[in-house]
Write a structure and sequence with these properties.
Layout lengths: L1 H17 L29 H21 L8 E6 L4 E3 L4 E12 L2 E12 L6 E8 L19 H6 L3 E6 L21 H4 L6 H16 L5 E11 L1 H12 L5 E5 L17 H7 L22 H6 L6 E6 L7 H9 L2 H6 L22 E6 L7 H15 L4
Parallel strand pairs: 5-6, 5-7, 7-8, 8-9, 9-10
Antiparallel strand pairs: 1-3, 2-3, 3-4, 4-6
Helix pairs in contact: 5-6
InterPro entries: AB_hydrolase_fold, GCE-like_dom
Keywords: Hydrolase, Serine esterase, Signal
Protein name: Acetylxylan esterase
Length: 395
């Protein structure tokens, strides 16, 4: 019995050590990032045309094959309907639309429920923030009986923007067993492929289907859709914007490893921890890089580069070292040269700005907010400032 107990203690210690996290900058290993402007066969990319025709598609495939999985684009049909009559709300400032999106393929259906508030007095179609909601559904309560700063609809409406949300569980429940019950029922072949789409990819796919709806809604300016995500939702918002260039801008909030932060820094959360705890998020091939980040053919600066030349805002929180604030900032900085191909000059400083010193008057934006891993009214206020700057609102 004693021998069994000692063996168990040793095993637990081993597993704990294997997943220990580094929060010490002096322990960040030396690393070399893949050159975002050099093809697999080592050919330099010096012009926008070569980026668009050669390097960008190559990088998309690398991310699909090694991390996020393929992104299916075909289905048999899509239908949009209202689950309730449009309703005035927020003391007449907004109209609530509750939309059901149904996607059909091979006799199967996936349903996406969208909550959308549109400014009542808008004189033209409104730009919209679309949240990939990975928190409780009550955070995006359509009745507004519960108001959450995670999704401050009133603030956004008062600023002249529409605001929408869907819940990740409609696409792929965030569970290592149940995730197969959404979109992947339409694409069962993805479950068998080593580079097949899993939960994060399914959430990004869902964001694109909501954008399909926005293109049909006359109250929404579908050319100004800002996809937003927090944490794992922020990983999905980045992937959605990289895959679907119809999104006008991307906000990725506290998305950390496999989101906006550089993997090779091995700071905070690491690939091995993600794949052990959330094996349903990324494709099977990603597990090859557990504790082997240097072998990745990509890093997250290259994912940010796929959003170029569209505006991108990455954020962190000062107490959320798990999501590697410095690594997020460095990923943005290492994507600047792709934005430069489009004559977009980054206004990011050379070193990370101070706490609560947002840089939002830029197509490449960043802030590190005081506080915990969360998305707050402070964050949203700066998202609005960022949108105003980039889409002609109040600057």
């Amino acid at each position: 019995m004693l021998r069994f107990l000692l063996t168990g203690i040793v095993l637990i210690s081993f597993l704990s050590a294997g997943h220990s996290q580094n929060y010490d900058e002096s322990k960040v290993p030396a690393y070399t990032l893949p050159d975002v402007l050099k093809t697999i066969d080592n050919k330099p990319v010096c012009a926008r045309g070569a980026w668009e025709k050669e390097r960008r598609p190559e990088i998309v495939r690398l991310f699909e094959d090694n991390i996020y999985g393929q992104m299916p684009t075909t289905f048999d049909g899509i239908n949009f309907s209202k689950t309730a009559d449009d309703q005035p709300t927020m003391n007449g400032k907004a109209t609530l639309k509750q939309v059901l999106i149904e996607v059909f393929k091979d006799g199967k259906t996936v349903q996406i429920n969208v909550t959308l508030f549109v400014p009542t007095h808008a004189t033209k179609p409104a730009p919209v923030f679309l949240l990939i909601n990975n928190r409780g559904k009550d955070n995006t309560d359509p009745t507004r009986e519960k108001k959450s700063e995670f999704w401050p609809a009133e603030m956004v409406i008062d600023s002249g923007y529409a605001i929408a949300a869907f819940h990740v569980s409609d696409l792929a429940p965030d569970d290592k067993e149940a995730y197969v019950k959404g979109v992947l029922q339409l694409y069962p072949e993805q479950l068998k492929a080593d580079n097949g789409m899993k939960a994060i990819g399914a959430w990004a796919w869902g964001a694109s289907r909501v954008l399909d709806y926005f293109e049909k809604d006359p109250d929404i300016d579908s050319k100004k859709v800002i996809v937003v995500g927090h944490s794992r939702g922020g990983k999905a918002s980045l992937w959605a914007a990289a895959e679907d260039r119809r999104f006008a801008a991307c906000v990725t909030n506290c998305s950390g490893n496999s989101g906006a932060a550089l993997a090779r820094r091995q700071f905070g959360e690491r690939i091995s921890r993600i794949n052990a705890t959330f094996p349903h998020w990324f494709n099977t091939n990603y597990k090859k890089f557990n504790d082997n980040e240097a072998a990745l053919p990509v890093d997250q600066h290259m994912l940010i580069a796929l959003v170029a030349p569209r505006p991108i805002y990455a954020t962190n929180a000062s107490k959320d070292l798990w999501a590697d604030p410095k690594g997020t900032f460095l990923a943005l900085k290492n994507a600047e040269k792709v934005y430069a191909l489009y004559d977009v000059k980054s206004r990011l400083p050379k070193t990370p700005p101070g706490i609560n010193e947002p840089v939002y008057k830029s197509k490449m934006a960043y802030h590190n907010r005081e506080g915990e891993h969360n998305m707050t009214s402070y964050d949203w206020g700066n998202f609005i400032n960022f949108a105003n700057y980039n889409f002609g609102g109040r600057k």
